[in-house]
Amino acid sequence: MSSSTIKSAYWTGVRHGAPFLLVIVPFAVLFGVVGTEAGLNLAEVMGFSVLVIAGAAQFTAVQMMSDNAPTLIVIVTALAVNLRMAMYSASLTPYLGEAPLWKRALVAYFLVDQTFAVGHARFEARPGMTLAERLAYLFGVITPVCPTWYAMTLVGALVGQGIPPEYALDFAVPITFIAMIAPALRTAAHVAAAGVSVALGLALAFMPYNTGLLLAALGAMIVGAQVELWTGRRE
């Protein structure tokens, strides 16, 4: 395969990942602000973004730490929030499973909601892509997304206290996930899982330390899997 084909796949990935900057920038700045307001120093805030690199889990953990939740609850909840990464990995295995271990390790580290959503959609739409093209495309998507997450977290940690409240940076959190989840609701199983997660999340909101979200996620997975089984049997 020619290097031009690989370069084309890479730059296509960069172009497809670039629109996410509209939400990545305020999302990352917001985490920098929230982290410093929660009492974390600069190294701790950046450590969160570099080592965890998962916005939802980071926000959840910082909020629970601010509420003085037990360490075990913080860890379990953050892991539960990131459980979707295991499902993302399973979905990408048919497309990237034959890559060398070090490349799969890099993909695993940089696998966030945005890179998965764009990458998986591309691989499904173009089953004829080679392994090299898939990897090039995915790393292209990663290029604008992940470095920006680090840089803007740093900006938020350094200057966040001076950002006027009326800028309402927190809009980036719900918009990001709505934009990624809505197009994925293509089957009855997806819709059922989403509906159950919302219903249980609201019904169990009274539980301490947001532990109701753990039960909501578990219930959603069970319902989604069951609906998938029913649908398969009927077909």
Automatic annotation (TrEMBL):
<keyword id="KW-1003">Cell membrane</keyword>
<keyword id="KW-0472">Membrane</keyword>
<dbReference type="GO" id="GO:0005886">
    <property type="term" value="C:plasma membrane"/>
</dbReference>
<feature type="transmembrane region" description="Helical">
    <location>
        <begin position="45"/>
        <end position="62"/>
    </location>
</feature>
<protein>
    <submittedName>
        <fullName>Putative branched-subunit amino acid permease</fullName>
    </submittedName>
</protein>
<comment type="similarity">
    <text>Belongs to the AzlC family.</text>
</comment>
<dbReference type="GO" id="GO:1903785">
    <property type="term" value="P:L-valine transmembrane transport"/>
</dbReference>
<dbReference type="Pfam" id="PF03591">
    <property type="entry name" value="AzlC"/>
</dbReference>
<feature type="transmembrane region" description="Helical">
    <location>
        <begin position="213"/>
        <end position="231"/>
    </location>
</feature>
<keyword id="KW-1133">Transmembrane helix</keyword>
<feature type="transmembrane region" description="Helical">
    <location>
        <begin position="165"/>
        <end position="182"/>
    </location>
</feature>
<dbReference type="InterPro" id="IPR011606">
    <property type="entry name" value="Brnchd-chn_aa_trnsp_permease"/>
</dbReference>
<feature type="transmembrane region" description="Helical">
    <location>
        <begin position="69"/>
        <end position="86"/>
    </location>
</feature>
<keyword id="KW-0813">Transport</keyword>
<feature type="transmembrane region" description="Helical">
    <location>
        <begin position="20"/>
        <end position="39"/>
    </location>
</feature>
<keyword id="KW-0812">Transmembrane</keyword>
<feature type="transmembrane region" description="Helical">
    <location>
        <begin position="135"/>
        <end position="159"/>
    </location>
</feature>
